[in-house]
Write a structure and sequence with these properties.
Blueprint lengths: L5 H15 L3 H11 L2 H18 L4 H8 L3 H11 L3 H7 L2
Helix pairs in contact: 3-5
Length: 92
C-alpha cells in the first residue's frame, strides 16, 4: 500500500522540477528521460488538440486531422475551455 500523501508529494516534486528547467533542450531531455516516446506523443497530441480547439476548429475537423476520438476531444475541451493560461499561449 502506498504511503499516505505520496501522490501529492509526487505532484509537488514534478512541478517543482519542471519549474527549474530553463532551456528547450532540458525540457525535451526531461520528458524523454522520464516518459516513453508514446507518452510524450500522447501528451503532445492532447496539447495540439487544445490548440486547435482554442483556434476554433470543430470536433469533426480535429477528429479527421488527428484521428482522435470525439470523447477524447470533448475531455480536452472541458479541461481547457476555462484555462486562461492556454488561451494566452494560443491566441494572438
Amino acid at each position: 500500500m502506498p504511503i499516505k500523501g505520496i501522490d501529492a508529494k509526487a505532484k509537488t516534486l514534478f512541478f517543482e522540477t519542471i519549474s527549474k528547467l530553463k532551456e528547450q533542450k532540458h525540457f525535451e531531455e526531461f520528458f524523454y528521460d522520464l516518459c516513453s516516446s508514446s507518452e510524450v506523443k500522447d501528451f503532445s497530441r492532447r496539447l495540439m488538440a487544445a490548440y486547435l480547439l482554442i483556434g476554433g476548429k470543430t470536433y469533426l475537423q480535429i477528429k479527421d486531422d488527428m484521428g482522435m476520438s470525439e470523447a477524447t476531444i470533448n475531455k480536452i475541451y472541458f479541461k481547457t475551455k476555462g484555462s486562461p493560461l492556454l488561451h494566452r499561449f494560443f491566441t494572438k
